[in-house]
Amino acid sequence: MKGKRIYLLVLIFMQIALFFTKATAQEAEPIVKFYSIDEVGDVEVTPGESQTAQAPLDITMVSNINNPDNYNYICEWRIWSANENEFSPIVNRFEEETTYTLTKSGGYYVKLYVTFTQDSDTIEYESEPISIVISESKLVCPDGFSPNGDGINDYFRITAQSIVKLRATFVNRWGQKVHSATLENTEHAKDEPNKLILWDGRKNGEYVKDGVYFLNLYGLGSDGLEYKIKKAVNVLKGFREGSEAGGGS
User: Fold this and answer.
1) pLDDT higher than threshold 60 for residue 247
2) DSSP codes joined into one string, 57-99
């Protein structure tokens, strides 16, 4: 009788152990990936972690499902504003891997839910939130540049942080357009990631003459702030570091 009780207890414990093994075997290791201008490289954020970045930010959400027992499963990604809750998401996606673009400043949470099913057995997985903070916008322009190939101030570069729309037009003193740029055809400076290169001082492949040009710039920030900048821009190819303005070869 005693031996039978021991056998039954062992059997019960084995069943409990098997249940918890199955319950923990079906899991996921979600990550959010994106290229960070501030970090000048790719970033991976895992559940419970937080990362600050600039807009527009293209994020890739990867579930990394762990399913050794070959359950059927359905994934659900939720993204919601830090001012709301997960039951009022701004987006729902039902793929194992999916993408989304964050364009407005503020805090966001990303969370993965997975439902595993096999016959009558159901296992629910829920990750901790992944936090992403989109910084507020900033747009500042210099007064000039010296495109002379000396490696110093060769490009007209603006400070641009979380700018989601951009239109720039440079004209000469007679109002003739010499160059234009948008967010889509500009690039960030390698040595200063927060700087956008708007102009190299050329028109149709040839450097323009030294002098004063006029910039008409429109920018829209991730926080909804509009920038409308009109200013004179000095092009000084003859200026070199250590020389007086207008001097040098």
Assistant:
1) no
2) EEEEEE--EE-TT--EEEEEEEEEETTS-TTS-SEEE-SSEEE
